[in-house]
Specification:
This protein has about 110 residues and is mainly beta. The chain has 2 helices and 6 strands, in the order E-E-E-E-H-E-E-H. A 5-stranded mixed β-barrel has the order 1-3-4-6-5.
């Protein structure tokens, strides 16, 4: 496992405005889902949309709060993380999310490239 790396890159659309959280520690974070379409299309010409949960900390949180709104097309680089918690039915739930360390808005000019 010496050469393993937890890194990914996605380009997609914001599914909603970011949700901002003020934590007891004084830190702030934002959560947002990104919709990413497959490049593959089925026989009817439809592609599948995948939804991924994103987490933003520190200066990335401020950036996403200021410029990302529902429908914004953007690119992220980040790493996968898992969160385990007990839900209201006392069941253990594990969720996977992406901690974002780079965010870039995709402009219409970039889409044409």
């Amino acid at each position: 496992m010496k050469n393993s790396k937890n890194s990914l890159q996605l380009v997609g659309f914001a599914g909603s405005d970011p949700k901002i959280f003020n934590l007891e520690s004084g830190k702030r974070m934002a959560k947002l889902s990104i919709a990413v379409n497959d490049s593959y299309r089925d026989s009817e010409g439809k592609s599948k949309t995948h939804w991924f949960d994103l987490i933003f900390w520190n200066n990335k949180m401020s950036l996403v709060e200021d410029i990302v709104k529902k429908g914004t097309k953007f690119s992220i680089k980040g790493s996968l993380t898992t969160q385990t918690f007990t839900d209201k039915d006392q069941k253990t739930v594990t969720k996977t999310a992406i901690v974002v360390n780079h965010l870039e808005i995709v402009s219409p000019e970039q889409e044409e490239e």
